[in-house]
Amino acid sequence: MNILQLLKKRPSLIVYSGIAILAVLISNKLGITIDNLGQAWGNAGILWSEMFPPDFSVVTERASWTQTECTWSADWACSAGIHGLLETIEIAFLATLFGMLLSLPLSMMAAHNLSPIWLSTITRNVLAGLRVLPSLVWALIFVIMFGPGPLAGVLAMTLYTVGYLGKLQYEALEGVSRHPLEAARAMGLPRWQIARYFALPEASNAILSQILFMFEYNIRHGSVIGLVGAGGIGWYLNNYLGVFSRYDRALALIIVIYVAVVIIDQISLSIRHRFMDSETHAPRARWREIIPFFPQREV
Amino acid sequence: MERPVLTVRDASVGFERDSPLLIDVNLDLHPGEIIGVIGRSGIGKSTLLRTVAGLIAPISGKITAPTGRGEIGYIPQRLGLINYQTVGYNVMMGALPRAPLWQTLFSLPGIELRESARDAIDSVGLSDKVLDSISQLSGGQQQRVAIARSMVQQPTLLLADECLGELDSETAKEIIELIQKLAKEDNIAIMIVDHNPVRVATFCDRVLHVKGTRIEEVDV
Questions:
Q1: How far apart are CA B126 and CA B91, in angstroms?
Q2: Which residue among A101, B30, B59, B119 has its CA within the 20 to 30 Å range from the CA of A297?
Q3: CA A9 to CA A1: how far, in whole Å?
Q4: What is the value of pTM for the model shown?
Q5: Is B126 on the interface with A (CB under 8 A)?
Q6: Are B54 and A185 in contact (CB < 8 Å)?
Q7: pLDDT at A283 over 60
């Protein structure tokens, strides 16, 4: 069987071959060659030898060069690993909270089923604009404006959270059944009451789940924005990788971040499970347990 | 006779001007009167109801319905309840049009509104379900919640789309009694869409039959 016959029989091979040829051409253009990879392999060996074993003194010894003041008396609490990690979690918490408070009204304005088309179009464009830059670039901008530190981190991640969470939320709001909204519209209720009392409770479990996801996401990204000086454990990691060239300590910090992310993932997952039915994956009526709307208490 | 709550004159309803679902619709609905609308599925009964509710504009003709806040009550085909909220919450939503702005802003309804919600819940027999989620209720119980919401709302015109659904005859009878109570005791004009002509004839004052694109009144 010659090549032509083979291609006739398996036309998908043309597509696969095309993709493979394209990949080789792009790699050549970008200067990615086998030689480069071989060289990198050698550097990786050096880095590896300097990283192992990881130096866990980063979670036991007091760091005298913390970015923000540490007033705890225990040395471990003021170590680069623990102090930095706590700072990252704090930044993520504030950014998620502020982001949620700003994104909730914006998402109601952006939802097609709750707002006039002109308002939803403008709001969607604002939210899209906030998502254009990743949180790392926002962090760079705020570090230039406010100087290095957690403030820049909180502001950067808040903006990104508004853009990202706003989009998730308006999609959740648009996904609610039209029937309760029509019943409310027929009653002659104003738009804000329809959004607040009908659409929001109907989408509340999905929204709550998104907020938890965003918190988890912000903790992961909180480690990255520290690389540009916007606070958190990333700042310590950047110093160990750069100024101090202590790769063994950097590796220990990476392990700390990994363990923290795994633990927070699990906590977040179990909280989100409380709001979702395990069999049908449908939201459960649990929102009322967290935010007591008046009728539960009063009627 | 009292002035009609709803008047429809030479109205065409539907989504496309070139092919309306219903044409030449004419009807009057008086306070305390129950009108049943029957016809096969997809013929335009629900669209007529949504047009009367002001959710869709009529293609042509004139519809005069109450325009005040809370004057129209609408129970959609799937009842329009907030599934992830409680019975109490859903019934209380009927009080929103009557609540002063400050009460709705701070979610603090006055005692009168709370009492009317409790009375409505009691009268539909769901006193022990106030804190249950809608998704935990049976179909019949959900229908009662929708009726209780309308009781609290006290509209002048109530539009109910297939609110009897596929209920068993016992439960349907109970819901029909509640609907009759709304019409006779509270003087609410009710327009109800149903697919069961025999059932409609038992409790409606007048029955309209949708045939093709026309509506005609049938004897009950």
A1: 11
A2: A101
A3: 10
A4: 0.78
A5: no
A6: yes
A7: no
pLDDT at A1: 66
Q: Do A44 and A87 fall into the same domain?
A: no
Distance of alpha carbon A193 from alpha carbon A36, whole angstroms: 62
Per-residue pLDDT band for B1 (boundaries 50, 70, 90) equals low
Least confident segment among A140-149, A174-183, A267-276: A267-276
Q: Which residues of A touch B83 (CB under 8 A)?
A: 177, 202, 285
Could you give the maximum distance between any two Cα atoms of chain A, in Å? 81
On whether residue A88 sits in a domain, the answer given is yes
Asked if residue A285 has pLDDT above 70, the reply is no
Query: What is the ipTM score, two decimals?
Result: 0.89
Instruction: Enumerate residues 58 to 87 of chain A having a beta carbon within 8 A of any beta carbon in chain B.
Output: none
Confidence bin at A104 (pLDDT 50/70/90): very high
How many whole angstroms from its chain centre is CA A193?
31
Mean pLDDT of A111-116: 94
Partner B contacted by A126 (CB < 8 A): no
What span, in angstroms and rounded, lies between the C-alpha atoms of B104 and A235? 47
Query: Is A66 inside any structural domain?
Result: no
Q: Which amino acid is at B74?
A: Y
Q: Do B167 and B160 meet the contact criterion of CB atoms below 8 Å apart?
A: no
CA distance to partner chain B, nearest, from residue A119 (Å): 20
Residue A111 has pLDDT above 90, yes or no: yes
Task: Give me the half-sphere count of Cα atoms (radius 13 Å) on the Cβ side of residue B163.
Answer: 33
State the pLDDT at residue A97.
95
Residue of chain A nearest B93, judged by CA positions: A197
Inform me whether the C-beta atom of residue A15 falls under 8 Å from chain B C-beta atoms.
no
CB A159 within 8 A of CB A130: yes
Question: What ranges do the domains of chain B cover?
Answer: 1-66+156-220, 83-155
- Total domains present in chain A: 2
Question: What residues contact residue A207 under an 8 Å CB cut-off, 6+ apart?
Answer: A104, A169, A172, A200
Angle between helices A80-110 and A233-241 (to 10 degrees): 130
- What superfamily would CATH give domain B1-66+156-220? P-loop containing nucleotide triphosphate hydrolases (3.40.50.300)
Are residues A169 and A276 both part of a single domain?
A: yes
pLDDT at A99 over 50: yes
Whether residue A277 is found in the same domain as residue A133: yes
Q: Is residue A242 part of a domain?
A: yes
Q: What is the mean pLDDT of residues B92-117?
A: 87
Average pLDDT, chain A: 85
**Exposure string for A251-289, b = 16+ CB within 10 A, e = fewer:** bbbbebbeebeeebeeebeeebeebbeeeeeebbbebbe
